[in-house]
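Hi F.,

I've been meaning to write this up properly since the lab meeting, where we talked about keeping a consistent format for the predictions we share between groups. The idea is simple: the sequence comes first, exactly as it goes in, then the structure tokens exactly as they come out, then a line or two of notes. No screenshots and no reformatting. I'm using this chain as the first example so we have something concrete to point to.
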Amino acid sequence: MARRQNLDLVEVAPNADPPVCKIMDFGKVRYEQKKKEKESRKRQQGTQMKEVRFRPRTDTHDFAFKAKHAREFIAEGNKVRAYVQFRGRDIIYKEQGMRVLERFIAALDDIAKVDQMARMEGKRMYTILSPRKTK
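Output, unedited:
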């Protein structure tokens, strides 16, 4: 029957008793499946890691400006890595760097949760925030 209609005989459920087969254009079905997969991949958006950089003595206006940008990143669904860069003798001001990051976490507490608390890595102290799950 499939040859007469110039179609393919496709085994749908080989484990069934008796096995189930369909007469269809298998090339067309495969094309539609690839098209659906491509469309679903296009709509899928992975989270990105955005970075916001501070110094130990970042001023209030600069801090507010950077916190505003971080808020936008989180609203888009991205994670934010905020770090304090210590240069030269700034390394002795670790407690100021910690205060900057704590202030940053407090400023974004309503829309973000802390994935990783502030910690030192080389000459940087960083923390990672991610968006809160909204229902």
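Notes:
The longest strand covers residues 112-121.
The chain has three helices and six strands.

If this format works for you, I'll send the rest the same way.

G.
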